[in-house]
Automatic annotation (TrEMBL), chain A:
Keywords: Amino-acid transport, Cell membrane, Membrane, Transmembrane, Transmembrane helix, Transport. InterPro entries: ABC_transp_permease (IPR001851), BCAA_transport_permease (IPR052157). This is Branched-chain amino acid ABC transporter permease. The keyword Metal-binding does not apply. It comes from the Bacteria. It is found in: Cell membrane. The lineage of its organism: Bacteria, Pseudomonadati, Pseudomonadota, Alphaproteobacteria, Hyphomicrobiales. It is a multi-pass membrane protein. Pfam families: BPD_transp_2. The chain crosses the membrane at residues 21-38, 44-69, 81-101, 107-135, 147-172, 192-211, 240-262, 274-307, 314-331. Belongs to the binding-protein-dependent transport system permease family. LivHM subfamily.
TrEMBL record, chain C:
Keywords: Amino-acid transport, ATP-binding, Nucleotide-binding, Transport. This is ABC transporter ATP-binding protein. CDD domains: ABC_TM1139_LivF_branched (cd03224). SMART domains: AAA. It comes from Microvirga puerhi. Pfam families: ABC_tran.
Length: 340, 371, 245
């Protein structure tokens, strides 16, 4: 790879990037534009942090779905069940390690969170592999059947969660040191939200690195655009797809853990509830685009928080309004993915 | 080819008389299926006289409403090939239309008419907007967008409590003729005293039958054939000059209207409407289960699916309860057949149906005996 | 230049291909000898693209056999066919427009980094690619995309190139440089099966020629024979060179 790069000494004659800046600028412009409306800076910071944290969690839950769609044209309506499953997986860790949660130690608390994430991702990754094999594989190329069959998978898995962990909501404790807020002057930032933003940014950065700097990333990006040609170059795209499906399910599991500690209550339907936001976000972002999914998540969450503060009545339908406006502006989403 | 055999069928119709005409020549085409359907319809027709008590009559009314709801959904899913998750929204609009009108304007037939007409108008406008906006891009957008819109509608209904009664919903009085105390006849018929409740049941039954026959007419009309052509090959239909978006939107409007009527009937029967009875996502899942298990793209599947599902909902749980207690002590197994887990098994049946019997029960029965 | 071995590099025997309800190839027989450039001619809808796609395994032959280098590849999955040494340049070019020119080439060199000599040779064939090396391939013009698509096919040594209408829609200048590029590839000993509508371009390049009609081969032989025989041309291709005179 490197010697190929070294060989291209000639400077390009066209402008370097075709990056579409408009949607990227949209988010900060929006955030700054509402500042005068909100009036005081500390409320604005609190709202923005809350919106960013929410956006990161939605991004975690949505990124896998959009990649799977882009790569294999599979729409998984059962994706939400991986979110629920990831959330319930925290019980596997919180059960034996309840002491770590109540300990007044940042290290133990973060270790606990990390352990929850690892266990959840392994579990949802495994279930994702089974889901792909049993539910999804027989219905490639047929959207109607995909929607139906993945809904069926959702029903069955949700019921299985009920059978295993019971049907009533289960409260879970937020680890001790993650409760409360950092206070800087009159600016209040809830600790857990800051952690959520950190994890979200970390995952996004890792995904960008993977997609842009590795051969697997190249393959995924190429596969999103034209899977057939990737095969004609000699790559077994099926294997790639299964890995992406498993990774996408694991990411949903990770999102589920973050979402679970945020809500501090587990229900089997919690994944499906948040799926509405997930779908809105991947439509806004452009089906198949990870960057679009990120921008869309942050956009939707910020708008929801600002509108909730400025005009609480409107907040109920703010997501739909954002989606409608974006689709009127760009019918294929913010970052349309080129396909064959 | 379809067109030729179809016109041939119409000639046959003129010879075969009014029954076939009523069914728009789209007969069940299987002896067993015909017998089952006749059995179900006969039971529903005679329900007030055959079964005693209010529980079976409520079950029968629920079956009627769901037959209508599922048949209208089948027009969309089975005949047009698009998946909507907003069907319960239209169901709910019908319910709330009746509930709000009767609660606010008093228990009169005028209120029923005002509620129903405004609900129909709202549904038509919403369905047209959603269709025109989302079917323009890709059919798969439609599914996701309807999901989003439906959830927003559910949130709205539970939040705007001054109008909708919020989570508690609305209870209301029916017009005098539909109340249990109403006695139109002095003497009982076949030993059953006719009251307003039975009249309400027959209102639901008749409306369901009439709209079902209209839907049957629609799917067998040239319009319905175009819908199926689009389902089979969108691009070819477009190339033949059919405006795919317009046809799909029209289908989604028709389907929404029928669902609205079903919601109105549901509210009339329950004398109540709330988020859980008409708007919840679990009803949407129920509809999907009924239409797929019954048989997509057959309309008759709606009758079978709805009947089977409502009966299962009411009686399968009892059976599973027995099994669960019998297996007590074994780990997990009793939990899996716990009465509350009946959806687990229907869900599995659903998946198997999509793979193995794409035509559901109706398709399977028809295949056994070639037409 | 052709080593006349017993078996040609690629051999199709009574290959049938169905796409959905349509029967496209009706028992195709043809051969591609090693080290030569074979032109595949025929009208629109004759089945040329289907032939290439069937060889590549992108559409599965419903019967018949495809042998490549003595090995039966009829039912192999596409990636395995590619790995056995066949490269494919589809009519749509199918370059990855979101990836840079460099990334397109990197991806095409499946077995590892492209060595400098090969890269110099490729960029010598298509100098324009060097100029746009780090730009998204979607920015390229139609002709440059075609160059990239071919460069991608030869990014690592292959036994056989399948190229579908490389001159389609290109400006005359581009067509000429494309013909030059194929001459150079021929000189380098590549085996090529080239679909072409433009008989004028085809006649300058081909060693051999296969003419298809309605999913069948109606003629095969050397290009020089066909160029010499005007009557045969008119019969096979309808639009003979005479027709324009």
């Amino acid at each position: 790879m490197s010697d190929v790069a070294a060989d291209a000494a000639n400077p390009p004659l066209l402008p370097r990037s075709r990056t579409d800046w408009l949607p990227l600028i949209l988010v900060p412009v929006l955030a700054l534009a509402v500042l005068p409306l909100i009036g005081d800076v500390s409320s604005w910071v609190t709202l923005t942090i809350a919106g960013l944290a929410m956006g990161m969690m939605i991004f975690l839950m949505a990124s896998g779905l959009t990649l799977v769609f882009g790569l294999m044209d599979i729409i998984n309506f059962g994706h939400g069940v991986f979110i629920s499953l990831g959330a319930y997986a925290t019980l596997l860790v919180l059960g034996p390690l309840a002491g770590w949660a109540s300990a007044n130690s940042v290290a133990l608390n973060l270790a606990l969170l990390l352990l929850c994430i690892v266990v959840a991702m392994v579990l949802t990754g495994l279930v994702g592999a089974v889901f792909e094999r049993v539910i999804v594989r027989p219905v490639y190329g047929n959207h109607l059947k995909q929607i139906l069959v993945t809904m069926g998978g959702l029903i069955v898995t949700e019921q299985a969660i009920h059978a295993i962990w019971g049907a009533s909501p289960i409260p879970i404790p937020l680890p001790e040191t993650l409760r409360g807020a950092f206070v800087l002057g009159d600016i209040v930032m809830e600790r857990y939200r800051v952690v959520a933003i950190g994890i979200g940014l970390l995952v996004f950065a890792a995904m960008q690195l993977l997609l842009n700097r590795t051969r697997i990333g190249l393959l995924i990006r190429a596969g999103v655009e034209n899977p057939e040609m990737v095969e004609a170059l000699g790559y077994r795209i099926r294997r790639l797809f299964v890995s992406v499906f498993v990774a996408g399910s694991a990411l949903a599991g990770l999102g589920g853990v973050m979402w679970a500690f945020y809500r501090q209550t587990l229900t089997a339907g919690m994944g499906m509830e948040v799926m509405v936001l997930v779908f809105i976000v991947i439509i806004i972002g452009g089906l198949g685009s990870v960057g679009g999914c990120f921008v869309g998540s942050v956009l939707v969450a910020l708008v929801a928080n600002y509108v909730g503060f400025l005009a609480p009545k409107l907040a109920l339908i703010s997501n739909i309004l954002v989606m409608a406006l974006v689709l009127i502006w760009r019918p294929q989403g913010l970052f349309p993915v080129a396909r064959r | 080819m379809t067109r030729i055999s179809n016109s041939a069928k119409f000639d046959e119709t003129r010879r075969q008389g009014p029954a076939i005409w009523l069914l728009s020549s789209d007969t069940p085409r299987s002896l067993l299926l015909s017998l089952i359907l006749i059995g179900i319809v006969a039971c529903l027709f005679a329900a007030p006289f055959v079964f005693s008590g209010s529980q079976p009559l409520s079950t029968a009314a629920k079956i009627c409403v769901f037959v209508l709801l599922v048949a209208s959904y089948d027009l969309l899913l089975g005949y047009t090939g698009i998946v909507s998750f907003a069907h319960t929204m239209f169901f709910g609009i019908g319910g709330y239309g009746i509930a709000i009108a009767l609660e606010r304007l008093g228990a009169s037939w005028e209120s029923v008419a005002i509620g129903l007409v405004s609900a129909l108008a709202l549904s038509a406008v919403l369905a047209a907007i959603i269709g025109l906006l989302s079917l323009r891009v890709r059919a798969i957008f439609f599914s996701m967008i309807t999901l989003a819109v439906a959830s927003a509608a559910a949130v709205l209904a539970s939040q705007l409590s001054t109008i909708t009664g919020g989570e508690d919903g609305l209870s209301f009085q029916l017009p005098a003729e539909l109340r249990p105390a109403f006695r139109p006849l002095a003497d009982p018929i076949l030993g059953v005293t006719i009251n307003g409740r039975i009249l309400a049941y027959y209102l639901i039954f008749v409306v369901t039958v009439v709209i079902f026959l209209i839907l049957l007419r629609i799917v067998n009309s040239p319009f319905g054939r175009v819908l199926q052509a689009i389902r089979e090959n969108e691009f070819r239909a477009e190339a033949l000059g059919y405006r795919v978006v317009a046809y799909r939107t029209a289908a989604s409007v028709i389907s929404a209207l029928a669902a609205t009527v079903a919601g109105a009937l549901m509210a009339l029967w329950l004398r109540y409407n709330g988020p859980d009875t008409t708007l919840s996502f679990s009803i949407m899942i129920d509809i999907l289960l009924m239409v797929v298990i019954g048989g997509m793209g057959t309309l008759y599947g709606a009758i079978i699916g709805a009947t089977l599902f409502v009966l299962a909902q009411s009686y399968l749980q009892i059976l599973m309860g027995l099994g669960s207690t019998a297996l007590a002590g074994i780990p997990l197994l009793p939990d899996l057949i716990h009465p509350d887990r009946w959806l687990l098994w229907l869900g599995a049946l659903f998946i198997v149906s999509v793979y193995a019997f794409p035509g559901g029960i109706v398709g399977h029965l028809r295949r056994n005996r070639s037409p | 230049m052709a080593e006349t071995s017993a078996e040609p590099l690629l051999k199709l025997e009574s290959v049938h291909t169905h796409i959905g309800p349509y029967h496209i190839l009706h028992g195709l027989n043809c051969e591609v000898p090693a080290g030569e450039l074979t032109m595949l001619l025929g009208r629109n809808g004759a089945g040329k693209t289907t032939t290439l796609r069937t060889i590549m395994g992108l559409w599965q032959a419903s019967s018949g056999s495809i042998r490549f280098d003595g090995r039966n590849i009829t039912t192999l999955p596409t990636p395995d066919i590619a790995r056995s040494g066949i490269a494919y340049v589809p009519e749509s070019m199918a370059i990855f427009s979101d990836l840079t020119v460099r990334e397109n080439i990197v991806l095409a060199a499946r077995s590892g980094p492209v060595d400098t000599a090969r890269l110099d040779w490729m960029l010598g064939l298509f100098p324009a690619l060097k100029r746009f090396w780090n730009l998204p391939a979607g920015n390229l013009s139609g002709g440059q995309k075609q160059m990239l698509a071919i460069a991608r096919a030869i990014a690592e040594p292959r036994r056989l190139l399948l190229v579908d209408e490389p001159t389609k829609g290109l400006a005359p200048v581009m067509v000429r440089s494309m013909i030059e590029a194929f001459r150079a590839l021929k000189a380098a000993g590549e085996t090529i099966l080239l679909v072409e509508q433009n008989f004028h371009a085809a006649s300058q390049l081909g060693d051999n020629v296969i003419v298809m009609e309605d999913g069948l081969v109606v003629h095969s032989g050397t290009m020089s024979d066909l160029v010499a025989d005007k009557v045969l041309q008119r019969r096979l291709l309808g639009l003979s060179l005479d027709a324009h005179q």
